[in-house]
Design goal:
Helices cover 48% and strands 15% of the residues. By secondary structure, it is an alpha+beta fold. Strand 5 (190-193) and strand 6 form a beta hairpin. Helix 1 (7-14) packs across helix 4. The longest helix is centred in the middle third of the chain and has 19 residues, at 71-89. It is globular, with a radius of gyration of 17 Å.
Length: 215
């Protein structure tokens, strides 16, 4: 576990240092598998920073590790996810599980804010991905994030308080570190489909090619 000191201050400062994040190394479009892992271990529910959509009895479990500052993650969310949700999640074929991979302090901050959104966390994270370029490139990213958070019921006091929740961020970081160490998750997005790992943006037809034989 990395050291945690004065995160509320670090987070606030980090939100103003958003340049060049999209230049980080992401997995490119690679639908080929990148290893197979014990399903029971991979699919064990995390303690913090996890969202599940779809039927728990679905024959296929898909886990996505995302970064809310990752342009490739935004591409998947904005161009593939809606169709996948309609065809597979809403029909009971897939349970879709989202977990955070923390790549930097800004990731830690916005992932913490997403957790503080409670039952609106999925919608809040989706909004951050949809409007990623806008809030990341705003003259005041902190103000832009406050405005978005307000739309999901988080006032200024709750926003500022959230960024100071040390135990919450420790939990999010611990889950991210566990994924990196146990499952070699190092790029975003990374998907596990019934324990088989795939890296990079999956288009709807890629997703179908992987999932349909498992149904």
């Amino acid at each position: 576990m990395r050291p945690l000191k004065n995160y509320s201050i670090i987070f606030t400062a980090a939100l103003f240092a958003l340049t060049a994040l999209s230049q980080n190394t992401f997995a490119q479009h690679v639908p080929a598998p990148h290893g197979s892992y014990d399903r029971d271990l991979v699919e064990t529910p995390g303690k913090t920073g996890e969202r599940r959509l779809g039927s728990a009895d679905a024959p296929v479990k898909v886990i996505e590790y995302i970064s809310l500052t990752c342009s490739a993650c935004a591409s998947f969310h904005n161009n593939s996810y809606k169709q996948i949700k309609q065809d597979y999640i809403d029909t009971g074929k897939v349970e879709f599980i989202t977990r955070f991979l923390i790549r930097n302090q800004i990731d830690a901050a916005v992932s913490t804010l997403s957790e503080c959104a409670g039952d609106k966390s999925t919608a809040f994270s989706g909004r951050l991905l949809e409007d990623q370029r806008s809030w990341m490139q705003a003259s005041s990213p902190l103000s832009a994030l406050r405005d978005i958070a307000a739309e999901y019921g988080m006032n200024k006091e709750a926003f500022d308080s959230c960024l100071g929740k040390q135990e919450l961020i420790k939990g999010i970081l611990a889950e991210s570190d566990y994924a990196s160490e146990e499952f070699d998750v190092s790029v975003t997005p990374t998907f596990f489909v019934n324990g088989v790992k795939y890296q990079g943006v999956l288009r709807p037809d890629d997703f179908s090619t992987i999932v349909d034989p498992l149904l």
